[in-house]
Design goal:
This protein has 493 residues and is an all-alpha fold. It contains 20 helices and 2 strands. Pfam families: Proton_antipo_M (PF00361).
Length: 493
């Protein structure tokens, strides 16, 4: 019952705001959206505490079930999604982008949250795909309608790329899921993970794994399927960028764990070396682009490509440590990316652009709270010990150095070394941004005192920065909750 309410509350509020509530003024729409997000967060906690689940016949003729539940693998992502839902609805008091109805904008945020929650709790493969697709239309609206108004052509291009890439990936994913379900005779993810998928022949496993990995790699995104992400991030409103980085990308990596890795482990293992190399190259490529990128928001987007490369490398290793590292790095990147995108969105509002080529006074002097948030975000992005991303990336490198099973150790060691070079590049681009923005290269007297973070914006930044520090100091908050569920996955060492 509780898990049904978890999905129904944001869905009902979002649909009402998008349709019947479109004329609702911001003074009413914002509290409604925030109350819905708060209720959803409470229900998410109750689902994990009570173990609530639903399992009913959905399409009996096809053997499909309406099945939702949470376990140790999905629990951290469920809490992350609920928390980010609170962040983006609260941020509406800071920024309501033009281009359409404020109620419609808030409704789209809630519908994206609904799709993500359904994806992380779905226990039927076809139901997983349906939930996976729920986010497509509202996110397209957020990018295409509520995105940056200064360049309509770029906004249309970003929204079009998002739809085309994700639709192509979803089509491939659909074929892979149908092949898996037809081959095994079940769509139940628990049965598939308990051996129904692993019983398939080597050729069928490889075919299923290839289709599933290709479909999910677009959403992660894995290089070279990443080119839709930077334009979408650059154009999207701040809350849209936060959802995209902190939640939507995690749906892809979660899908890699729940589908190919758990259901067809041998087929996934044969693809793992290619995936590991793609992840490591993504780490380096993202870092190199960040070293020369001028637009700060686009820079943060490319840093996401690099960070998700570590997640992919960890998953490819096929070990329990690797999956643990990937799940931890998922949550860590979600928090850090949310912090940086909220911060960059605030700077863009104040400055009109976030072009790093423009000389500006030191942020630490004009807006010390924003400056502190920037330092925390950049330090976490480069993997500084004591902050959230350090443990996930360290464990990812460790798992790649000692991959599971018969995976070619030489390939994985080379990928680990390459990813370590990418980590060094992260330090370089983080220091570059700190030097240009935090330290500044123009006297503050030239521009006067800037507007610092106050009110809701301040508390959003404090909450995200605090979560980054807490997860860095106590990574066992995630690792202990996922340990038993990861140990139960088939095909891991």
């Amino acid at each position: 019952m509780v898990v049904s309410l978890l999905l129904a509350l944001p869905a009902a509020a979002g649909l009402w705001l998008v349709t019947a509530g479109r004329a609702t003024p911001p003074r009413l729409a914002r509290p409604l959206a925030a109350a819905s997000a708060l209720g959803t967060a409470v229900l998410a906690v109750l689902v994990l505490v009570t173990g609530s689940q639903v399992d009913r016949a959905w399409l009996p003729e096809l053997g499909l079930r309406w099945s939702f539940a949470a376990d140790g693998i999905s629990a951290p992502l469920l809490l992350l999604t609920a928390g980010i839902g609170l962040v983006v609805t609260a941020h509406a008091w800071v920024e309501l982008p033009p281009g359409g109805s404020p109620a419609g904008y808030l409704g789209c945020l809630l519908l994206v949250e609904t799709g993500a929650l359904a994806t992380f709790t779905a226990r039927d493969a076809v139901l997983f795909l349906v939930a996976f697709e729920v986010v497509l239309v509202p996110m397209w609206v957020l990018v295409g309608r509520y995105g940056d108004r200064r360049d309509p052509r770029a906004r249309a291009d970003a929204a079009g790329r998002f739809v085309l890439y994700t639709a192509a990936g979803s089509s491939t994913l659909l074929v892979g899921i149908l092949l898996l379900v037809v081959s095994t005779g079940t769509a139940d993810l628990r049965e598939l993970a308990d051996g129904a998928g692993a019983a398939l022949g080597p050729g069928r496993q490889l075919a299923v794994a290839l289709l599933l990995v290709l479909g999910l790699a677009v959403k992660v995104p894995v290089l070279p399927l990443h080119t839709w992400l930077p334009p979408a991030h650059t154009t999207a409103p701040t809350a849209g960028s936060v959802l995209l980085a902190a939640v939507l990308l995690k749906m892809g990596t979660y899908g890699l764990v729940r589908l190919p890795l758990a259901t067809v482990p041998d087929g996934f293992g044969r693809l793992a070396p290619v995936l590991a190399v793609a992840g490591a190259v993504g780490v380096v490529w993202g870092g190199l682009v960040c070293l020369v990128e001028r637009d700060l928001k686009r820079l943060v987007a490319y840093s996401s490509v690099a960070h998700m490369g570590f997640v992919v490398l960890a998953l490819a290793s096929g070990s329990e440590t690797g999956v643990q590292a990937a799940l931890l790095a998922n949550v860590a990147h979600g928090l850090v990316a949310a912090l940086l995108f909220v911060l960059v969105g605030g700077l863009k509002q104040r400055w009109g652009s976030v072009d790093l080529a423009v000389r500006r006074p030191a942020l630490r002097e004009t807006s010390p709270r924003l400056g502190l948030a920037l330092v925390v975000g950049l330090a976490a992005s480069l993997g500084l010990p004591g902050l959230a991303t350090f443990w996930g990336e360290l464990l990812a490198l460790y798992s790649a150095w000692a991959p599971a099973g018969d995976r070619p150790r030489g390939v994985f060691v080379a990928a680990a070394v390459l990813a370590a070079v990418g980590a060094a590049l992260a330090a370089a681009y983080a220091l570059r941004v700190a030097g240009l923005v935090w330290a500044g290269d123009r006297p503050a007297a030239d521009a006067g005192t800037g507007t610092d973070a106050v009110g809701v914006e301040r508390w959003v930044l404090v909450t995200l920065a605090g979560a980054v520090v807490v997860l860095g100091v106590a990574p066992m908050l995630v690792l202990s909750s996922t340990a038993d569920a990861v140990a139960g996955l088939g095909g891991l060492r």
